[in-house]
Structures are given as structure tokens and as C-alpha cells.
Write a structure and sequence with these properties.
homodimer, alpha+beta, 60s Ribosomal Protein L30, Chain: A, Phosphoribosyl-aminoimidazole Synthetase, Chain A, domain 2, 7-stranded mixed beta sheet, 4-stranded mixed beta sheet, 8 helices, globular
């Protein structure tokens, strides 16, 4: 629907004819669903039974397209995942586009198509959007902000306050893939590889986890990685978290690149992973359930909650202990 | 809570300690309400009776602070207004911050305080947020994206499809104040003035209008101004909209600046105005109701819906007619 080589102009964000045509010919085409009305100021979701949950996230990943995903699918997955780890079923999304003047229309078309496809695959409807265009030099190409609304059944309430000493920490797959794949896609270090981002909906894992009575809490380890989730839990509960290096799934390629560049995969963003805290008696059942899911073969029990001084400790393969402190610098800006 | 002169760093967006402290010490302080839990992935709104509406908008105004408002209050008002014109009572907001590295912490504090105050004044709770920091040169200081959720009672359904020939077009006050005030605040033309943005919640006007049985449709004339709203109505209904220049409230200062710089106030953004289409028999009652509201003294009946070729026409004070076409160029980027 777009002329090849066409670029976004300031007039695509002015509320007038060009914006109307962009919304109709590009966004509405890719996002089409029964709840989307591009001529309305607000989308009507009807009446909703159950408890409603809402979340929001900005997406600034660079490059916008990378092996395994792009900013469009990432925005959908990230928002779906925040609802899923909260025990909700994601239903509706809003998607706000902040575009820099001169941005390539074909790329925008691909990213909108990718967001639309990801939403359909996750069973959510993109019901409202917005387009703003900033003058050249005042943006980073394209930034997205997504908000998500979901509903939660009674009985699915989770929280860090339920976490007890002895609980187990599980993750549904290898950590650090997204951060490393985006890093490679920047071609900054002359490094190459076939690594793909793990960007995906974790809803099937969350739903399987919700079947387990001993489930306490879930979180998706995005910015700051699994070490940051562990720190958040430790800070909030006042408990000690011990991660077991030998059990932590990290792909060889991720480990190799991190060793070379001085990154720690435990602090790198994942976008299709979920960390769950579960009672020790239920850990084996949850691990088995996750490993049965497609892509869950490498799910692992990677740590425990203990009493003692609140901190996060990595028990190394050699039997030593290394403190995993709270992240302070930003090793990889624009990673998600 | 912030050291004077402190600046935003990339680490304020990395998910680690600095981001946690920023969220706790700055955002949570200004947005505090019972539904905000800064340690959760999604906010729980409980169960909600009635029909749910959702909207989203990005805000890129430059300068960030201007007479009559700032990007924080503007984001709240803009989102509240999109719900209000849809017949809903706004209840919850999410607010996503996209901050450029090096941004002034004191300014961020003022803007967050302003957003929090505006939300309280509008009776809405900011329940979820996000902070992303982009490297210096890849942003425009600060961009916000807000999403809003509201509920609508049965019977408050409005829409352009209800509009009929003979209906009247009302506006609740002078047009073009916001666009002109922001323009002046840029100090680009050596112009000065005491004009203030009209940025405000139009919820009281929407609620008064919903009491009028002949109400068909409402829209807030933001980007593209009242001429763009009239064009949207004409395009969607296939009807002719006639605006009456003599009745259109435009402040002398706005008219003077527009004459000087070649802008048309009918295309300039308003952020505290609402256009309503109402049956002719109810127009006087709605006008009276709006004029009784504080700040509504200059509300006016400014046009009519007619049969005939779909277009928007301005009947001039001299008795001529001027076509008000769809906006094509962008006269004022980053106006909202």
C-alpha cells in the first residue's frame, strides 16, 4: 500500500489528511479486528467480567529489526508477558508510534505487520493507537509504547509476599539470548552469529504455572536480566536468593560473546523468558509441565530462596559463591 | 528528593538500582494512589461495572513547559478528554516516560508533580508507568505516552452515525489558545504575550452535554483544530458542515498572532475544548448549560450540519464562503 522509498513526513503526524491515510492504509490494514475503530477517540471493550489488569511499556530497541524479532513483535510480547506473569489473560493492546521525520515507510509497514501478526498469535486485539512525528534529529527512528489490558480469574493472585524460604526458582529457557542477539545485530564488534532473540509470548508457561498450587510469583526477566529479578525479590522479601551456576541454562554462543566483551548473561535482557517462584514440593511438577511445552525443553530449576542476609548469590560450578549485586551502570542501552 | 542540577543517565533506564530509586523517589511520590504498586508488572483495577473504554496518546510538545501547562498536565488532560468525549468517566491512566540522557532531574520532578496534580484534579489514578532512557541526541528531551481507561454507563453511546442535517455544532470556548501559547513560548519570532494554553479537562462539559437528549457526538479539537474535527465529521457522514465566522470565539491576541504569521486559528490545536454536535431543538439548552460552567462563558453555537456536497465551509463575516480543506502540511510540529 506504500510507494517504495516513501518517507514519513511531519504531516503524517499533524492530524490531517496524510495522518488519516497512514492510519487507514497502513495501521488499520495490519491491526484489523472487531474492536478497532480508527475514527473513534477511545475504543469500546464492552463489559468485562473478572478482575482487570493494566500495564504499560516503552520500546526503544536498536536496531529496530533483529534476528528473531523487531520492535513491533517485541512491543506485543513484552506487554502480553507483563500481564501473563501477573496471572492475567491478555486481551487488548494499545500501540503508540513515535516516529522520526524521514523514517522509511516500508520499514514502518513491516513493523506494523509484525506487531499485528504477533497480536493475533497471542490472541490479543490492538484496539487503539496514536501516531506522532518528531522533527529529524529529535528521535531514534521509531519508538513504540504499548499498554495492555487483561482479565484475571479469581484465585490467580500472585505476589512476592507469598514467597517463603525453601521455595524454588525456575526459568523456562536459556537466558541472555535477546540481549546478545540485539548486540550482534548492531555489528559493532565485528562479531557474527546465528543467535536469535527469544522474543515470544510466555503466556503458555504462565498458564501452565497457574495450574500449580504452590506457585508464588512470576516475573519476566527483561531489562537487567535474571539477576535483576532475583535482586528485586530479595529486596522486597528480605530473603537470600541463591542461583546455581551449574543449573542456569546459557547458550554456548551467548557465553562466548559475553566472555569476550565482558558482559554477564545473568544481567542481559530476555524477552521470552519467565522466572517463577514455586514451593519446593511443586517444583518438579512445574518443571515437567514447562519442559513439555514447545520450546521449553531447556527449562530449569536454577535457584532457591533461603533465610539469611538479603542478597543474591551465585553458587559457582567450582563451589564458590559470587555476589550478584544490583545493576548500576547500563551495559547495553536501547536493548528493549 | 533530587539533588539540584542532577541529570538523567542511561542507568536510570536499565532496570537496576538507579531506575528503582527514580521510580520510588520521584514518580511514586507524585503519583501516589491506592491502585499504584511500583513493584508489580501490571496494576490491578479490580472488577469494573459498565462498559470499558480505552485510549492512548503520545505527547511531544515543545517546549515542555509553557504558560498554562506542561507536558505532564497536557498528557493527563489529553487522555482524560479522549475518554470524556466518548461518553466515559475517566478512571485510570498509565504514563510512559521516554527520557533523553542528560535531561534535567528538577524539570522531570516538576513535570511528574504536574501530571500527578492534574490526575488528582480530574479524579483519575495513575496506576502504571514505564521509564526508558535513550542516548543523548536520540530524543527530544522528554516524550510521554499516556493510556486511559474509563467506564461508560448504558445509554451514553455517541457517534458520528447519529449526526443528521440540521444539527448544530457547539464549542465550549475560544479556539487556538493552546497552539498559539506554545508557539509564543518558543520565542522564535520575537513575539511576546500573556496568552495561556487552554489545557484542561473538558469532563464537566462532557458530563453536562450527556444530560442533553439530543447530543449526537463530541470530539476534542486537538491536532488540526476545529477545522479538522469538522472535516472528520464531513468525511464520515457525507454531510456538509458550515461554520459561522462571526460566531466562532477566537481571542484577539490569537487572531493577531495568526494574522501576523499566516496561521489559521481554526487549524490550531486546542487542549481544553470540546466540539459537540447536538439536535437543533436542544442546542440552546446545551449552550446555556455550558455557559453556566466555570470558564464556559464564551461557549458558542458556531455551525450547522447541512445536506449537500460533503465539505467544510466557513461563512465569513462579510457573507462570503471559504472552503476549509483537510490539513496537509504541518504548520506547527510538536504542538501537543
Amino acid at each position: 500500500m506504500t510507494a517504495s522509498g516513501a518517507k514519513i513526513t511531519l504531516a503524517h503526524g499533524n492530524g490531517g489528511r496524510f495522518m488519516r491515510e497512514l492510519v487507514r492504509n497502513l495501521f488499520a490494514k495490519h491491526f484489523a479486528n472487531a474492536d478497532l475503530d480508527i475514527s473513534a477517540d477511545a475504543a469500546c471493550l464492552g463489559s468485562v467480567a473478572g478482575t482487570i489488569l493494566v500495564t504499560t511499556d516503552g520500546f526503544i530497541v536498536d536496531p529496530l529489526e533483529f534476528p528473531g524479532g523487531d520492535i513491533g513483535s517485541l512491543a506485543v510480547h513484552g506487554t502480553v508477558n507483563d500481564l501473563a506473569v501477573s496471572g492475567a489473560t491478555p486481551r487488548w493492546l494499545t500501540l503508540s508510534f513515535l516516529i522520526e521525520e524521514g523514517f522509511d515507510m516500508d520499514c514502518l509497514d513491516r513493523i506494523a505487520a509484525s506487531a499485528g501478526a504477533a497480536a493475533r498469535a497471542c490472541g490479543v486485539s490492538i484496539v487503539a493507537g496514536d501516531t506522532k512525528v518528531v522533527p529529524r534529529g529529535q528521535g531514534g527512528g521509531l519508538y513504540l509504547t504499548a499498554s495492555g489490558i487483561g482479565r484475571r480469574e479469581a484465585g490467580s493472585v500472585l505476589g512476592m509476599s507469598l514467597i517463603k524460604p525453601g521455595d524454588c526458582l525456575l526459568v523456562n529457557g536459556p537466558v541472555g539470548d535477546h540481549g546478545t542477539a540485539v548486540l550482534l545485530a548492531r555489528h559493532e564488534f565485528g562479531l557474527q552469529g546465528d543467535l536469535r532473540s527469544d522474543s515470544a509470548s510466555i503466556l503458555p508457561y504462565a498458564q501452565a504455572a497457574l495450574e500449580i498450587s504452590g506457585l508464588r510469583f512470576m516475573r519476566d526477566p527483561t531489562r537487567g536480566g535474571i539477576a535483576t529479578v532475583a535482586n528485586e525479590i530479595s529486596l522486597e522479601t528480605g530473603l537470600r536468593i541463591v542461583l546455581d551456576e551449574a543449573m542456569l541454562p546459557v547458550r554456548d554462543q551467548v557465553r562466548g560473546i559475553c566472555d569476550m566483551l565482558g558482559y554477564d548473561p545473568l544481567y542481559l535482557a530476555c524477552e521470552g523468558r519467565v522466572v517463577a517462584i514455586v514451593a519446593e514440593t511443586d517444583a518438579a511438577a512445574m518443571l515437567a509441565a514447562w519442559r513439555r511445552l514447545p520450546g521449553g525443553e531447556l527449562a530449569a530449576l536454577v535457584g532457591h530462596v533461603e533465610t539469611g542476609r538479603p542478597c543474591v548469590v551465585l553458587r559457582t560450578e567450582l563451589g564458590g559463591e559470587r555476589l550478584l549485586g544490583e545493576l548500576e551502570d547500563d551495559p547495553l542501552p536501547r536493548i528493549c
